[in-house]
Amino acid sequence: MLKAENIQFVRNPAFSLKDIQLNIKKGEVISLIGPNGSGKSTLLRVIANLLKPEQGHIIIDGQNLKTIAKKDFPKNLAMLPQMNDHMLDLTVGELVEFGRAPFQRGIGRLSVENQEIVEWALEVTGLTHMRNRLLPGLSGGERQRAWIAMAVAQRSKVLLLDEPTTYLDIAHQMEVLELVKYLNEEFGITIIMVLHDINQAATYSDRLIVMKAGQIRYDGIPQCVLCKEMFQTIFNIDAEVHNNHDGVYFTPLRRRRNG
Amino acid sequence: MVAVQQQATTPTHPLAKKRRWTFFLLVMLLIVASVASLMIGPVRFSLAEIWHGLTVADHSLERRIIWELRFPRVLVGVLVGACLAVAGAILQAIMRNPLADPGIIGVSSGAGIAAIAIMIIFPAYITLLPLAAFLGALMTALLIYFLAWKGGATPVKIVLVGVAVNAIVGAGTNALMLLYSDRVQAALPWLSGGLAGVGWSHVQMIVYYAVGAIMISMFSVKYIRMLRLGDDVAKLLGQRVEVVRFFLIVLSALLAGIAVSVSGLIGFVGLVIPHILRLIIGSDDRFLVPASAIGGAFIVVFADMIARTVFDPIELPVGILLAFLGGPFFLYLIQRNRKGDARA
């Protein structure tokens, strides 16, 4: 479904992505985790074609990203960038309509088909009753849902989310993650997201990819990735890992002195 | 929770009513100010006389004063005001900066130095004035864009770079005027910005450019709105962000250049009008850009009427009057920004 082959991206002499290999199956939920500055967001932006890698390429559904026309790009991939909080005086409905803008010819009203897709996007994100509310008047979680609805309205095969839960309280974090999970289960959208909270990543993802210093260090199902050794080498902390019937989670113990 | 959500449901757009009223009021204000401008002056006319002056081509006093003097002046005021306010609205949107304005970011002074050069060095090429003003505006706009935007342009950075470029261009203008001090008289009234002495020739000089540029602006609204979502989102939606922004800067330089070429340096219209309107009707450019056009037209026609009548017999250049009004307003905006309200 989505492949990254030999990605190399040099931002500055001190930081680069090296030899990134990714193979993501259709309908998977992937979380990228890792310490600050490990290259998670950079990798996400490379996948979204917002950054051009020096080497390697991204392939979506057998098509090289570079050869996809700009106009067709939104059909293949949608992304929610890091919390953007320009105070736009748009209603939720107007924001979601932007998701159809790439498929709309000329100016003026949306076509009937596009209008229906907007309605659908509002419905699946539970925003139909808020469609005429202005964005600045919404809570952080509602606003984030509105932006996700805009991405959903593109009806892309892949949805990328860059730290979708930042600045939200715990209830709103779960609200956003449950929405993501619902979109994945109900419509088979492939999800790749950057998350800071490792327990949440383990709970809501099929697969975790752990990065450090611009490289992928671990790649596998949460049960395999979450282990004492991973926390030691990647995050430099001691942690206790617990397994129970519905998953795996960890408790941090202490920061390691040496290393 | 459920009750709160239901209560929050609004059937129509929350700003729809405000927008309708704002448009209605702006159009009324523009009509009233235009008619009043035709009426008031050293000679006063009734509505019937104005109608006569506009429609009957004879040798009456009405015809000569209204058709030959006051009407073209109102038309130029409308075009200049609309161009300046639309230029300001576009710049504020694409720079995500409520303080962007053709004057403050140096575009007007760029148009100014080019126009002065034509007027006092190459007076034979006076017909090229709009073109020269446009090129001057474009040069400074691009200069500021490349100096401030690359590497991330914060509002403060754009304003500071604009001030610096303004100072340099201003020095250049002064140097020109000193070097050619014998011919500077021709350019002086133009420098302080005003509509004194404009006539049909000026209308003809700018009307096609102005109407064309404003039409293009209206069709560009779709792209301006996309840029407001942020560069990343616009790119993800398939926009060529750098190309679009470059085109929009050229467009606003064209608008500012058109205005400057006939009216000289009229400041603050481009800053104040879109800003006030944004506070009232919100930042959706589908409404903000056309409302700015009408509002800008109104404020210039109205201020010009005040400037030429209140201080009679002295005709105060409208640019000076607007600066008197706009300066304090600008300071007020900065005060507001300091309180943490940085909505662009």
Please provide a written account of the structure:
- The complex is a heterodimer of chains A (259) and B (344).
- Chain A has one domain (2-225): Rossmann fold.
- In chain A, 32% of the residues lie in helices and 30% in strands.
- Chain A contains 9 helices and 12 strands.
- Chain A has helices at residues 40-47, 73-76, 92-98, 112-124, 140-152, 170-187, 198-204, 222-225, 228-235; strands at 2-12, 15-24, 29-33, 55-60, 63-64, 77-80, 158-162, 190-194, 207-212, 215-220, 237-244, 247-255.
- In chain A, the strands form 3 sheets. Chain A has a 6-stranded mixed beta sheet with strand order 6-7-8-3-9-10, with helices on both faces. Chain A has a 4-stranded antiparallel beta sheet with strand order 2-1-4-5, covered by helices on one side.
- In chain A, β1 and β2 form a beta hairpin.
- Chain A starts with a strand and ends with a strand.
- Chain B has 344 residues and is mainly alpha-helical.
- Chain B has a domain at 82-313: ABC transporter involved in vitamin B12 uptake, BtuC, CATH 1.10.3470.
- Chain B starts with a helix and ends in a 6-residue tail after the last helix.
- Classes of the chains: A alpha/beta (259), B mainly alpha (344).
- Chains A and B meet through β6 of A and α1, α9 and α10 of B.
Task: Supply the number of structural domains of chain A.
Answer: 1
The gross shape of chain A turns out to be: globular
CATH topology of chain A: Rossmann fold
What helical percentage do the residues of chain B reach? over 70%
What is the rounded distance between the termini of chain A?
38 Å
CATH homology-level superfamily of one domain in chain B: ABC transporter involved in vitamin B12 uptake, BtuC
> Regarding CATH, which class of one domain in chain B?
Mainly Alpha
| SS class of chain A | alpha/beta
Proper CATH architecture of chain A? 3-Layer(aba) Sandwich
**How would you write the strand order of the largest sheet of chain A?**
6-7-8-3-9-10
Give the CATH class of chain A: Alpha Beta
Secondary-structure element sequence of chain B? HHHHHHHHHHHHHH
CATH architecture of one domain in chain B: Orthogonal Bundle
Provide the helix percentage of chain A: 25-40%
What is the CA-CA span between the terminal residues of chain B?
32 Å
State the CATH topology of one domain in chain B: ABC transporter involved in vitamin B12 uptake, BtuC
The fraction of residues assigned to DSSP E strands of chain A is 25-35%
Total number of β-strand segments of chain B?
0
Structural class of chain B: mainly alpha
